[in-house]
Design goal:
By secondary structure, the protein is an alpha+beta fold. Helix content is about 60%, strand content about 10%. The two termini are about 35 Å apart. About 40% of the residues are buried. About 15% of the residues have low confidence.
């Protein structure tokens, strides 16, 4: 019987077209999503952080794309914030102030995430043997904290305005500023979410979702301005409170997503795809152990596969083929330790004769 053999996949390279790694449906793995109108809003605010068809399999390229997305979105949001702040100064709208504060906080969240992407490029050390990819998830926690704080500040401003009402001015400019906020944030949201999906970054997708939320809260600012124009003076602070509450409620989904990654949680469909790739490898009799986890926007894992009782070199070939199929199926995969264990057929029991 051959001894257990360990095969490690690291920085894999593979030619395209060797295997069709999309030859099985992903809908039959027990992971479903809402459909119809509910599904539409689910896709808007709870998008996946991975997409096998568009994933980037080079770690450095993925990090570079993430940094580029943050740079561009940072300047767009800062420009939007400055325009909205100028309108707030001439109008006094607390709903617009709430939106401006949140847009500014969303722009600032790009900074720690930017640092995390750069830090994640550093090579592993004797102290950090898995590298620095977790910095990205910690940046995600910072994003959650900043967004929550901005919602609290906006709510406080709105409550103060309810207690001490003030006359608003230049309401048409407030409405225009709200539309500017919506357009700017939606552009950033589409860009961040698309890149986040491609590189498998939950933190970048979460940042994109926050930008999308900001866009819809900017539309709420327009609604508040219209309400004041129609004679309902409290519409502005009430809209500010609604914006703050909506941010806190929708933030819960992001907290769960980031927390799950910090606890080494993984999307079940990714495990299903990895297991399917291993099971369809020629020579694999069974997959007895399979583990995956995210480290930033890259995947790591380990697997134990049972093969026929054969030579070590044959077991190595099976492990190589399994690694090749996994690399196609999970482009974000950086490290996968594959252990082969020989399957021993027990001899048939002999009949006993008296």
């Amino acid at each position: 019987m051959s001894a257990p053999h360990l095969h490690e996949v690291h920085d894999h390279e593979h030619p395209d077209g060797d295997h069709d790694h999309h030859d099985h449906p992903h809908g039959g793995n027990g992971h479903s999503h809402p459909t119809g109108i509910r599904g539409f809003f689910y896709g808007l605010f709870v998008p996946h952080s991975h997409d096998a068809a568009d994933s980037i399999d080079d770690a450095l390229e993925a990090s570079t794309q993430g940094v580029r997305a943050l740079k561009i979105s940072l300047f767009i949001l800062l420009g939007t914030t400055i325009l909205q702040l100028l309108v707030f100064l001439v109008s006094g709208s607390v709903a617009l102030l709430a939106d401006t504060i949140h847009n500014f906080s969303d722009a600032l969240t790009a900074v720690p995430l930017w640092v995390a992407f750069i830090l994640g490029r550093r090579a592993a050390t004797r102290r950090y043997t898995y590298g620095y990819g977790r910095a990205e998830d910690l940046a995600g926690l910072f994003i959650v904290a900043v967004v929550a704080l901005s919602a609290i500040v906006a709510a406080w401003q709105s409550i103060d305005r309810l207690i001490h009402p003030e006359t608003l001015h230049n309401l048409w400019w407030v409405a225009v500023a709200g539309m500017i906020g919506f357009v700017g944030n939606e552009a950033v949201a589409v860009y961040r979410i698309r890149v986040g999906k491609q590189i498998g970054s939950a933190a970048l997708v979460a940042d994109g979702v926050h930008a999308r939320l900001d866009g819809f809260t900017s539309l709420a600012v327009v609604l508040g301005a219209v309400g004041v124009m129609l004679g309902f003076s409290l519409a502005d602070p009430i809209v500010g409170l609604v914006i703050s509450a909506a941010i806190l409620v929708l933030l819960w989904g992001t907290i769960k997503s980031i927390g799950r990654r910090l606890m080494d949680g993984i999307e079940p469909e990714l495990v299903d795809r990895a297991q399917h790739a291993l099971e369809r490898t020629s020579g694999v009799l069974a997959v007895t152990k399979l583990q995956l986890r995210w480290v930033g926007h890259r995947l790591q894992g380990a697997a134990t596969i049972r093969v026929a009782d054969t030579s070590v070199s044959d077991a190595q070939l099976v492990a190589d083929e399994a690694a090749h199929l996994l690399a196609h199926e999970l482009p974000n995969l950086d490290d996968m330790a594959i252990t082969t264990v020989a399957s021993v057929e027990l001899p048939a029991p002999h009949a006993h004769h008296d």
